[in-house]
Amino acid sequence: MISKKLQKKIKKLLAKVIPLWLVMILLLNSILATGFVQYYIMKKNFNAQLSALAQTTKNPEELVQILKQKVIPQKGYRLAVKWNDIGKQLLESGAIDKTKYEELFAQDPIAKKEMAAHMMSTSNDSMTINESNSRFMVNTLWALGLVNKSKILEEGSMKTYGKGDVMGFASTGGWTLGSKPTSELYSSREIIKLTSEQQELVKKIALTVYRPCCGNSTEFPDCNHGMAALGYIELAVAQGVGEKEIYRDLLRLNSFWFPQQYVELAAYFNQQNVSWDKVDAKVALGSQYSSAQGAQQVHQAVQGVPGLNVQQGGCGT
Fold first, then answer.
1. Model confidence at 209: pLDDT above 60
2. Structural domain total, the chain
3. Would you say residue 239 has pLDDT above 50?
4. 249 found inside a domain
5. DSSP string, 137-154
6. Which of 57, 91, 145, 249 is an S-S bond match for 230, by CB 3.0 to 4.6 Å?
7. What are the CA-CA distances from residue 64 to residues 84, 257, 289, 310 (Å)?
8. Which candidate, 276, 289, 309, 313, places its Cα nearest to that of 131?
């Protein structure tokens, strides 16, 4: 047995070796360190937690807000292609009139910034899509699809259904932002150089990509979104982007151009226990879901979900 006298000596020694204030500091540091670790773990798992919540939440309106952040996130997306000299060539070709563009976006500081960065000179930046620049992007890609020399425009459905006169469509007759008549711009300049094999790949992809404003594939780009999608496909194929990435980017573009329809589509897939990030972009862009008829069927299937009220997309400049 340790004597009481010895016990007192041990307590005094411990008090000298590890003062109470030091114990408190060590304890506080331990708590802070644990807190930081927990914060970074929570941050790392945030997307996984959102996905799990989207599958389990009992509040439909809360679910819709989660889906909106997945489909049309505030930060937007970086696309797989670079600007290079595309913007500059669109101005030089007359597909875009600089003054008209400046007037159109006079009250849009984001579009002004995009023009300055990507249309006045060569840029190594990647293209992006977000809520703030979606109108600028659809118009710019529309001009690209319209003016770029293309077998699809010269030999495809535009010629077939236009019976030789392609100026009667929304994507042609509706383009008023060029410095030349649209009839002169149409498939007039080889801004994007494509081999025969690349032209076939463009056609293959275009035939499988739809948009919710009509029942036509991108091979029949009779509206602005169709012509914009065609321009993007041509650019992506020329830059060597893989098919999977092209479909992914086209779904992202469509989502910002038609936010209502694609948030509804995300809600539809959620009902099938498929999270938006697991959806096959090629399947989502097919006629079953992304044509006007397909989008309407999806709309009917999710009509009972409260909170599905997102700003509608539409055709036009």
1. yes
2. 2
3. yes
4. yes
5. HHHHHHHHHHHB--HHHH
6. 145
7. 37, 18, 19, 10
8. 313
Query: Which token pair is 292?
Result: 């006007």
- 32 vs 131, more confident: 131
Please provide the DSSP assignment of 147-195 as one string: HB--HHHHHSHHHHHHTT-GGGSHHHHT---SSS-HHHHTT-B-SS---
What pairs with residue 128 in β-bridges? 78
pLDDT of residue 31: 43
- Which of these ranges, 30-39, 71-80, 285-294, has the smallest mean pLDDT? 30-39
What are the structure tokens assigned to 189, written together?
């300049």
The pair phi, psi for residue 110, each rounded to 5°, is -65, -45
Q: Which domain holds residue 282?
A: 68-301
Statement to judge: residues 275 and 137 lie in one domain:
yes
Tens digit of each residue's pLDDT (9 = 90 or more) over 40-88:
433 344 344 444 544 555 566 787 889 999 999 999 999 999 999 999 9
Percentage of the chain beyond pLDDT 90 is 73
- The verdict on residue 313 lying in a domain is no
Nearest by Cα to 211 from 243, 256, 177, 150: 256
CB 66 within 8 A of CB 124: no
Instruction: Give dist(CA 221, CA 229) in Å, integer.
Output: 8
Question: Could you tell me the two tokens for 245?
Answer: 């990435």
